[in-house]
Amino acid sequence: MYKVLDKSIIGADEMVMNMGPQHPSTHGVLRLKIVTDGEIVSHIEPIIGYLHRCFEKHCENLSYEQIVPFTDRCDYLAAMHMAHGYSIAVEKLLGIEELPERVEYIRVILAEFQRIASHLIAVGVFGLDVGAITPFTWTLRDRERIIDLFESVTGSRLLYNYIWPGGLAHDLPPNFIQKANDFLNYFEPQIEEYNNLLTTNKIFIERSADIGVMPVDVAINYGVSGPTLRGSGVPFDLRKDEPYSIYQKFDFDVPVGEGLMGTVGDCWDRYYVKVLEMKESIKILKQALNSIPEGDVKAAIPKKIRPKKGEIYSRYETARGDLGLYIRSGGKNMPSRLKMRSPAYCNLSVLNEISAGWMISDVISVLGSLDIVLGEIDR
Amino acid sequence: MSENFLVKKYKEKVELLENNSILVDASDWKEISTFIFKSRFDYLMCITSYDLEQDNKIGLAYNFYSTKSKEYLEIRIEFEATTKVFSIAEIWRAADWHEREAYDLMGVIFEGHPDMKRILLPDDWDGHPLRKDWKEPEYYNGMPVPKDKTYWE
Amino acid sequence: MTSVVDSLLNLFSFTGLDNSILLILVLHIPALSIFLVMVVNATVAVYVERKVAAFMQDRLGPMEVGLFGFKGGKKFWGGIGQTIADAIKLLTKEDIVPDSADKKLMLLAPFIIFIGAFLTFIAVPFSQNLVVSDFNIGVFYIMAMSSVGVIGIIIAGWSSNNKWSLYGSMRAAAQIVSYEIPIGLSLLLAVLVVGSLNLGDIVQWQAENRWFIFHSPFTFIAFFIFFISVVAETNRTPFDIPEAESELVAGWMTEYSGFKWAIFFLSEYANMMIVSIVASVVFLGGWLSPFAIINVGIPNSWMIFDGPLIGIIWLMSKALFLIFVMMWFRWTFPRLRVDQLMYLCWKVFIPFCLANLFFVSIWELIGGLFFK
Predict the structure, then answer these.
(1) Which H/E stretch holds residue B58?
(2) Predicted local distance difference test score (pLDDT) of residue C262
């Protein structure tokens, strides 16, 4: 309605507002410089770097093993994914082809649990951004159970340092499979609860459908990935298209945005893709938990990581999208250059393109649906 | 292989490296990048800047992906640190922030970028920290940088 | 219906003082009582809101904070110490005034909002004969006084010299002024039928006939329009866009802290109380017992459930139920956007209100022709 805005009619002055770095809904320390005309936003400039911790500079001075805990701290809501992606990259660099079956199974199980946990936060926080507080507490309640599972496995609740290049830190605790199955039985009906509470709420649909529409060509040109890209209707998922680890063994679908409530690629689609992905993760988890083999998880861990000279670019599908790692080895036990292509970094760069022309409230909706983690953007 | 079409077209200008990446001269990059975009590589995944540690040379690695044909392509440019590189931010919008990051951390100067400024570091930062010859400064904004790091490491 | 002030004047007439001097002295009693009611209301409402939120959202916090080591745990009084801790925190917190703020106006704003709520209570009846002053224009007075607060909100937003505050206050002004219209039009139905602006007369009509919500299908709709509109007027979710936490930080209250903020809080909960009481009095039979819903076939002996003293319980239970529904809303719905809010008011509620007014007039006309 107000998307078409002829400024000559209004003739009002524009005002520059600073949203953040201290603001309740910028998901951390993001600063948005918003040029507004009344309630309508004409230009947004995201200003990042408030959480920059020199990850790439650190990597040049640390051995490959020592980098693992640092990757955890990049995307702290999906720490398992970052360590998994990094381990796969280092294994590629070392030329390790085959890992023990049990290692791959445990990695996939934990990665899918992590995906559910991360999407739970994304779904709840999106509700919080549009003003509904209850979904957030409900999703946190269920995420807490996943965190408990992780604690029983790794000993820590947020930053795990569990997946190492070539293997795992240690094996699963004895009753893990039972506890994981219990959780899945509890969690599956909960998704319907979220749908009843938030997804199909009329006000929620009003606030998210048809808002911040991201067309496919814009998404691809900006390098958007993950659920944000799939929300625009592109069925691209590395787990399906180029299966790493053992994802080719499992049967699951890649949900895409279909524009059920509005246009394809609106905030509601980006939100709903995450809800559907949780269901797909449950599918994978059930298959993996039923067929996990026995084995030694430390068998393939290399004694010393000292790759030959060369470069590698490795991709990994995290909860937020396509994690790329470009590692340049100089033949030492430390990488000579490690560049992380963080998915949320690319997803955030599209913000101005899709939310300029909307209202301040809509910018919040769009930002919430992009699901950013500042730790990963600033690194 | 996806690299062959480029080697075929620009025989003299490109050089095929051992892991199927293609080395391009900085002066040809404008022409070749437009050609790459028009062929099929619509998705720019990553731009990595790296320091070659010799002759004051730095390099850039561009990783492309084609969402249509599922192909990969890696382009490398290696050049003197003072050389201006053609900015592809207008072709792939994804390059906008990646190029700003390369400028910020490595000091690559891009020509024709719409908004060339620091992205991760503060505006008053001195130097480009990912260069191998970067030295920790004595002072930052008038504050002495602590030398004793016993309890930090 | 007599008012509290009249009763007090009668009570103290033995002193033989001049009536005007006595009035000034006597007025302090209801004034203090109103203030006490507001404070107690806010304290209890904060506690109840916390508990309602905890039950709906699986929050564990409101089971823990106890008094002198007495926690309460999962019992319904668990966490009762939080209210006291909150009050002490608010009163002892540093009162921050931004350097570039308009300091005099910033001090003035909370008191204007408070006075708006305070003055409204004068005409709000708590039961039969339990009203500070029995206006013959009670409905009109309540409407007028409850909209004084918006001046305070605009002043608060402007004087804070913060862009978020300014946005919040402009949104609040637009919202409150707009939603006055459906509220006024809905109350007008009662005035139209009863033929009086006096709240006592309106309840008397309901005692003789039936609850006003069941007067006709149109008043049934009108009640819901009225209730949703007052939720909007008191700036509560899903209409809390003036203080939208995730958008405007805290809206027009962003720069306030400590005692001044506590006064905003007090007024907000007082307004909730006022609108709930008005909704109960006008639509839900006020201090009448629920046996008078349709007033058919009730034995006269049941009328013992009605009376000034027991009436306060009936009225309060109705009002508290409405307050609970408001809290229920808050923990269920997302927030509307500012243009959707205006759409709801101007394009849905106001046409329906006007149609209601027309049809209720017809209803009364036809009823007058056939049933009398």
Answers:
(1) strand B57-65
(2) 86
Amino acid code (one letter) for C151: I
As given in the structure block, the two tokens for residue A348 are 């955030």
Residues of A at the C interface (Cβ-Cβ below 8 Å)? 1-2, 15, 17, 23-25, 39, 127-134, 137-138, 141, 197-198, 201, 203-204, 206-207, 359-362, 364
From the list C41, C81, C45, C43, the residue with the least C-alpha distance to C63 is C81
Pairing of the two strands B84-86 and B109-111? parallel
Residues A7-30 have pLDDT tens digits of 555 556 778 888 878 887 777 788
Residue type, C330: R
Q: Angle at Cα C215 formed by Cα C211 and Cα C218, nearest 5°?
A: 125
With CA atoms as reference, report the closest residue to A138 among A129, A128, A148, A130. A128
The alpha carbon of A314 is separated from its chain's Cα centroid by a whole number of angstroms, namely 17
Work out how many CB contacts closer than 8 A connect A with B. Answer: 83
Question: Measured between alpha carbons, how far is C197 from C200 in angstroms, rounded to an integer?
Answer: 9
Mean pLDDT per 10-residue interval, chain A, length 379 residues: 51 76 80 85 87 87 88 88 90 85 89 91 89 88 90 89 86 88 90 87 87 88 89 87 86 86 87 90 90 82 82 88 88 87 89 85 88 86
- Cβ atoms of C67 and C83 within 8 Å: the answer is no
Q: What is this structure's pTM?
A: 0.86
DSSP A335-372: EEEEEEE-HHHHHHTTHHHHHTTSBHHHHHHHHHHH--
Distances (CA, A) of C308 to A312, C53, C127, C128: 85, 34, 6, 5
Round to whole Å and give the CA distance between C255 and C353: 38
Minimal Cβ distance to A326: which of B44, B61, B96: B61
**What's the complex ipTM?**
0.86
- C159-178 pLDDT, tens digit each: 888 888 888 888 888 888 88
Instruction: Confirm if C200 and C125 have CB atoms less than 8 A apart.
Output: yes
**Residue indicated by tokens 């689609």:** A269
Place of tokens 């033929």: C195
How far is residue B38's CA from residue B53's CA, in Å, rounded to a whole number? 34
Token pair for residue C225?
């329009």
* pLDDT tens digits along C244-296: 777 777 778 888 888 888 888 888 888 888 889 999 888 888 787 777 666 65
Alpha-carbon distance A178 to nearest alpha carbon in chain C (angstroms): 25
Q: Which stretches of chain B score pLDDT less than 50?
A: none
Q: A300 CB contacts (<8 Å, ≥6 apart)? A: A96, A98, A99, A100, A103, A166, A167
Q: Using only C-alpha atoms, what is the Rg of chain C?
A: 22
| Residues written for chain A | 379
